Amino acid sequence: MKRFEILDHTADIGIVAWGRNLPELFSNAAEGMFSLITDAKVSGEGFETEIAVEGEDRVELLVNWLNELLYVFETEEVLPGDFEIKRIGPVSMKGRVRGGPIDYTHHELKREIKACTYYQAAVEELGPTLWRAQVYFDM
Amino acid sequence: MAEKWKGPLERLDDNRWVIPRTYKQGMRTDGIIYAGKDMIEAVLADQAPEQVTNVACLPGIVGRSMAMPDIHWGYGFPIGGVAAFDRAEGVISPGGVGFDINCGVRLVRTELSGDEVQPRLKELVNALFRDVPSGLGSEGRQVFSQRDLTKVLTEGARSLIKRGYGWKEDTTYLEEGGAMAGADPAEVSEKAMKRGREQVGTLGSGNHFLEVEVVEEIFHPDIARSFGLFEGQVVVMIHTGSRGFGHQVCTDSLRLMQSAMKKYGISVPDKQLACAPLSSDEGKAYFAAMACAANFAWANRQLITHRVRESFETVFGSSAEKLGMHILYDVAHNIAKLERHRVTGKELDVCVHRKGATRAFAAGHPALPEAYRAVGQPVLIPGDMGTGSYILVGTQRAMEETFGSTCHGAGRVLSRSQADKQSRGRDIVAELQEKGITVMAKSRSTLREEMTEAYKSVKAVVETVEQSGISLRVASTRPMGVVKG
């Protein structure tokens, strides 16, 4: 299964992500988002934080989760290595992100994502073991 | 790529196209798109017109839902969107401002000619690249204390001038005097404060830039003289916004608006258009936080201006005063403003949302500095990094038709992946150098995504606003040196 794919948009950029379940979907969406920022890979060592977000539905949870990750990336200056979704409920979720510090001399940061938007944002259950999400980012 | 828009479009004249409100249920007014005959096909190529009609559905909209000729597909509002809402009955929407609150453009004049700068150009671009932090990451950044940042949020550019980063006269030549009223730091989250602490005076990335330009053509000599412009003159254009601070304010507000919509029984065709009545607690809270971000952006461009003056001083061995580095003007192109306009013969208090659109007030408006009051407001229109920019002036027609608004730039025509494909294997820096433009950038991807072919012709955009009478061309510039994030 493909984990994510880039969506074309004239001014901005989006992603579609897939997962066998909601935790995998949220994790793949996060990877898709960071693939837009950098191709650099870091080991999941050196930095670890827990992220808890709330939202009125799954779309809000996804958008809030991704925006929270952008906040961590910018303020902590770390690149996430892996994401672990601990729990996703109807209106709240909890995840853990591990990563390492950005090395500006070796990691090329391709672009800046300003934020994850709600525009045409979707989280859908396509089958018993297939979920799909879509979001656009403001670049 | 995006689906082509297939809705109805009525041609009003050569430069204006109407989407009638009968197009879909929920539209409270018509949509209108300003675009030349040659541009309209490109406008219809994606879902930007649908976004014009979505904005037409928002409660309390006054006049039409408008789009300037640089319209392109955004999120919520289209980029190039303008809409005004009644102060008493209308709404305010963070989606009508965007994440980069008060992204805008400042133009700094010099008394230097292109010929004088050319021999030192490499050195100058190097100095600017070194002195103004750009790209991602905090290298070389100035850290602001909580107290100083709070002052930035309420006093905007003035807070920095007080600390020695600028001249006393500077605020006279900034929209809103560089500090919007109504800013309340109590409405700003801890997260936004944390993101903002190290970002005052930073350019950022993407389409933001710092450009050394030379005035190429003067269209209206009298107005150009009032703006202090002459042919062959070197000017500096600064294009950036409120950085992570503004992005966080918008993110926080969208969450607040989602719940407010339920409370006030508002439904919108796109979640990104979440809004609240201007008169509600949530509407007021967003306005107060947005004003903080707007002030952050004016302070950001102020500190960059200071660094630019310092770089010129170092390279040319003369003071910025002697080099004549006065600010020509500074405009916001992502903002919601409380303004009074004449609507069908009556004075009306409205909240004008400009998302990728610029205020363009006509001569005589009290908001203009005295030096420009007889001619009108300078409007700064950046082009792409290979073709140069324009300085326009606001007109009476804009006051009557577009709530004193006009275009803001070229507008993208290629998506980032299309630009990436078309530029693969090319050396954009060398190509620009061949055209006589020296470029320095933190990221090679940014350069490829921002190449000339990725944008509409800014010339066609400004010709359309001139032909439709909502602004006049005063001067054009061409780039000499570019700094990108």
CATH fold description of chain A: Archease, Possible Chaperone, Chain: A, domain 1
| DSSP strand tally of chain B | 19
CATH topology label of chain B: tRNA-splicing ligase RtcB
CATH superfamily assignment of chain B? Answer: tRNA-splicing ligase RtcB
Total of domains of chain B:
1
CATH class label of chain A? Alpha Beta
Mean pLDDT of chain B: 96
In DSSP terms, counting alpha (H) and pi (I) runs of 4 or more, how many helices of chain B?
A: 16
Helix content of chain A: 25-40%
Question: Please, could you describe this protein's structure?
Answer:
The complex is a heterodimer of chains A (139) and B (485). Chain A is an alpha+beta fold and 139 residues long. Chain A has a single domain, classed as Archease domain (Archease, Possible Chaperone, Chain: A, domain 1, 3-Layer(bab) Sandwich), CATH 3.55.10. Chain A is built from 2 helices and 8 strands, in the order ββαβαβββββ. Chain A has helices spanning 22-37, 58-76, and strands at residues 4-8, 13-19, 47-54, 78-88, 92-101, 115-116, 122-127, 130-138. In chain A, strands 1, 2, 6, 7 and 8 form a 5-stranded antiparallel beta sheet that branches. In chain A, strands 3-5-4 form a 3-stranded antiparallel beta sheet, covered by helices on one side. In chain A, α1 packs across α2 (58-76). Chain B is 32% helix and 26% strand. Chain B contains 16 helices and 19 strands. In chain B, the strands form 4 sheets. In chain B, strands 7, 8, 9, 11, 15, 16, 18 and 19 form an 8-stranded mixed beta sheet that branches. Chain B has a 7-stranded mixed beta sheet with strand order 1-2-3-4-5-13-12, with helices on both faces. In chain B, α4 (121-131) crosses α10, α5 packs across α10 and α9 (243-264) packs antiparallel against α10 (281-316). The radius of gyration of chain B is 21 Å and the shape is globular. The mean pLDDT of chain B is 96. The interface between A and B is large, with 35 and 52 residues.
